[in-house]
Every structure is written in C-alpha cells, then in structure tokens.
Amino acid sequence: MKTLIAYFSRKGNNYVSGKIVNLPVGNTEVAAGMIQELTGGTLFEIESVKAYSEDYTTCTEEAQTELRENARPGLTARAADFEDYDVIYLGYPNWWGTMPMPVFTFLEQYDFSGKTILPFCTNEGSGMGSSEADIKRLCPNAVVRKGLAIHGGSVGRAQAAIKKWVESMK
User: What does pTM read for this prediction?
Assistant: First the structure.
C-alpha cells in the first residue's frame, strides 16, 4: 500500500500551553515527520497561496473569517501521482473546531474513492472537533478511520502515542 502524509501546519507565533510562542517548525509538521519515519510514506505539505499573518491573533481572525465564509483558499501545489496512493494520513491543527480551510480545499481537489484517510490533529485541548465528520462529508467514498488528537504543546514527546496509533491502523 502506497502512503501519502498530507499535512497543513503553521510555524511562527502559535498558542502553546497557554501562551504565545514562536515555533520554528509547526506542531503538525513535527507529527507528520514522526509518521513519515514510521511508515516511509511520502510527505506533502498543504500550503495556502495567501500566507496567513505571522501574528497569532490576526491569523486566528483570518481563519475564523474563512470558516464563516466557507472559503476555499487556493493551494500552492498539487500532490504528484495522487491516484497512486492507497492510504492518506491527513494532518492539521484544530482551527475553530475543525480543519483549516486549505485542508477543505485539498480534500475537494482529489477523488478519494476507495482510499483510506487517517486523520491526525494537533490542538491545545479541543481534540478533533468536527473534523472527522467534515472529512467523511467531503469524502463520502473514502474509508475514514479514527483520528489521533495530539496536544500541540506535547508533540515533541508524542512519538509513543503516534507509533501506537499508526500500528493500530494497519
């Protein structure tokens, strides 16, 4: 089975364990790297054409506006040979109770029929939110397995939990 690890992540100013900190690598990207090490899958970063503000508060306002408008931001690239992948690990931070809108764009750009989607979500206490239901709604012909919620502030110590989840999905 060929594996793709598609993820959206945000480095820079982020809310972590109750305070704003500057992350050189976003939490979701850290988790995606761990999954790549465990699976040997291909990494693909989901990036919006229009960058979000580096200021955390402004970024959250931009994200909330996109959610309210049900926006579909343009993406910088498409995953090469997407049709060849059987399993897609899909990573994202929890923004306003679901996935960032660029992830919605990503899910609507491809045919996920017959593919297995394994969602993983970094968050600061809000878990998966409605993201699993949103993925199932957007990809009705895919198999969407139980996702993994990872506390963003602890992602650097999440290797064991990620490994356990990846192994349980086989």
Answer: 0.97
pLDDT in tens, the chain (170 residues): 899 999 999 999 998 888 999 999 999 999 999 999 999 999 999 999 999 998 999 999 999 999 999 999 999 999 999 999 999 999 999 999 999 999 999 999 999 999 999 999 999 989 999 999 999 999 999 999 999 999 999 999 999 999 999 999 98
Closest CA to 36 of 162, 168, 170: 162
Q: Where are the domains of the chain?
A: 3-168
Between CA 59 and CA 141 the distance in angstroms is 33
Beta carbons of 113 and 142 less than 8 angstroms apart? yes
Instruction: Give the domain 3-168 fold.
Output: Rossmann fold (3.40.50)
Residue 10 phi, psi (nearest 5): -130, 115
Compute, in degrees rounded to 10, the torsion defined by CA atoms 103, 19, 58, 34: -20
Phi, psi (rounded to 5 degrees) for 43:
-85, 140
